[in-house]
Design a protein that fits this description.
By secondary structure, this protein is α/β, with parallel strands linked by helices. It folds into 3 domains: about 170 residues, NAD(P)-binding Rossmann-like Domain (Rossmann fold, 3-Layer(aba) Sandwich); about 160 residues, Dihydrodipicolinate Reductase, domain 2, CATH 3.30.360; about 80 residues, ACT domain (Alpha-Beta Plaits, 2-Layer Sandwich), CATH 3.30.70.260. About 35% of the residues lie in helices and about 25% in strands. The chain contains 14 helices and 17 strands. Strand 11 and strand 12 form a beta hairpin.
Length: about 450
């Protein structure tokens, strides 16, 4: 049987890795797919740029339209990134009846609903394993491996840059800005790191995970997002002292009231496996009613880890080329006409526990007023630490852990605490998650 011919859009890090993996493992891939898979046409912005791959035998162009319109190409791999040109090229490919493999989390999170609808109409597949957590096969695990479960919640470290920064802050007592500069020098963070450190990248990925876990349409715009730029080394150290680690976590939970979709810094008990995922690694913890908690760990980025997921998708598409479109695995795990319309909860309605840090005057009655305000808003305290001020008359750091409470109650309480003359500056608030099988 003739090899399947593939067009590649983007010859950067992941594109080069994909070429390398396909060439190096060609025989094994053909054994698995039932046919060979060959990239015959590729588009790149700069054809003279040094590559990490050998492009011998691949026709190169700067025009992605040439690749998409090539009549010999049956599958398009989209590795351009962003949701402008990539969206146009993917839509154009689907319109021509070509299957698509993409690593583009922004494209899927923001435009996946319309893309999948068009793909279903045209009878083609859009595969996107590489869009979340690099080489970790988390999409396939939830969509297929856990298909017999009612997924209750999932929580993930799904941005390696943020995890590297928080790990360095904890292990070496460094400041955020200092570690960010190193992350940029090492190539872990972009010159403009906003997408990583403000949680936008993680929110794209969480949107996708929640959709396949709960069978809901993609709703990126409703995902609550908070970054790690305000996390201090003191917060990291205090959390450690209390038996917790701070991770930039994506959390999706199916509750009776609706679905929680949120990305934010989170205290996790240090005994949890996911709390010990360090550096640029990713991990996703999924709770199913039948299987219980399962943890998926590995490289969340990089040339060949991400290429591993791209090529796995290619193999899946090739296997399904001759199958009836109605009998393929649905894009979002659930049949397209069976997606639920569960509401996404606004952050104010989410219930979670909290870490609070405030600078309080070191004199009698101050803590009584603070605890009275918390009590008035039905917030109970689990633990409290008061640090001695450096000098007499200075403010002392007070750290509290609370039990679960609705966010709007905590917002109201914090506003009243910050209004006290005896409290200096804003109250630092970090949400907490236990992440056990009962919560």
């Amino acid at each position: 049987m003739n090899p399947v011919k593939v067009g590649l859009l983007g010859l950067g890090t992941v594109g080069g890795g994909t070429v390398n993996v396909l060439k190096r493992n060609a025989a094994e891939i053909a054994r698995r797919a039932g046919r060979g898979i060959e990239i015959i046409h590729a588009a790149a912005r700069d054809l003279d740029k040094p590559r990490i791959c050998d492009t011998t035998g691949i026709k190169l162009t700067t025009d992605p339209n040439e690749v998409v319109n090539n009549p010999d190409v049956e599958i398009i791999i989209e590795l351009i990134g962003g949701d402008g040109l990539a969206r146009t090229m993917v839509t154009q490919a689907i319109e021509q009846g070509k299957h698509v493999v993409t690593a583009n989390k922004a494209l899927i999170a923001k435009h996946g609903n319309e893309i999948f609808a068009l793909a279903q109409q045209k009878g083609v597949m859009v595969a996107f394993e590489a869009a979340v957590a690099g080489g970790i096969p988390i999409i396939k695990a939830i969509r297929e491996g856990l298909a017999g479960n009612d997924i209750q919640w999932l929580a993930g470290i799904i941005n390696g840059t943020g995890n590297f920064i928080l790990t360095e802050m904890r292990d070496k007592g460094r400041d955020f800005d200092d570690v960010l500069k190193e992350a940029q020098a090492l190539g872990y963070a972009e010159a403009d790191p906003t997408f990583d450190v403000e949680g936008i990248d993680a929110a794209h990925k969480l949107t996708i995970l929640a959709s396949i876990a709960f069978g809901i349409p993609l709703q990126f715009e409703k995902t609550f997002t908070e970054g790690i730029t305000t996390i201090s080394r003191e917060d990291v150290a205090y959390a450690e002292e209390l038996g917790y680690r701070i991770k930039h976590l994506g959390v999706a939970r199916h509750t009776e009231k609706g679905i929680e979709l949120r990305v934010h810094p989170t205290l996790i008990p240090e005994r949890r496996l996911i709390a010990n995922v360090d550096g640029v690694k990713n991990a996703v913890l999924v709770m199913g009613d039948a299987v219980g908690p399962t943890l998926y760990y590995g490289a969340g980025a990089g040339a060949e880890p991400t290429a591993s997921a791209v090529v796995a998708d290619l193999v899946d598409v090739v296997r399904a080329l001759t199958s009836d479109p109605e009998n393929r695995v649905p894009h979002l795990a659930f049949q397209a006409d069976a997606l639920a319309n569960d509401p996404i909860l606004p952050m104010e309605e989410v219930e979670t526990a909290y870490y609070l840090r405030m600078a309080a005057q070191d004199k009698p009655g101050v803590m009584a007023r603070v605890t009275s305000i918390l009590g008035d808003h039905e917030i109970s305290i689990e633990a409290i630490i008061q640090k001695e001020p450096v000098a007499e008359g200075e403010f002392a750091n007070v750290i509290m852990l609370t039990h679960k409470v609705q966010e709007k109650q905590m917002n109201q309480a914090i506003a009243k605490i910050e209004a006290l003359d005896s409290i200096n500056g804003p109250v630092k608030r970090i949400r907490m998650e236990v992440l056990d099988s009962n919560k």
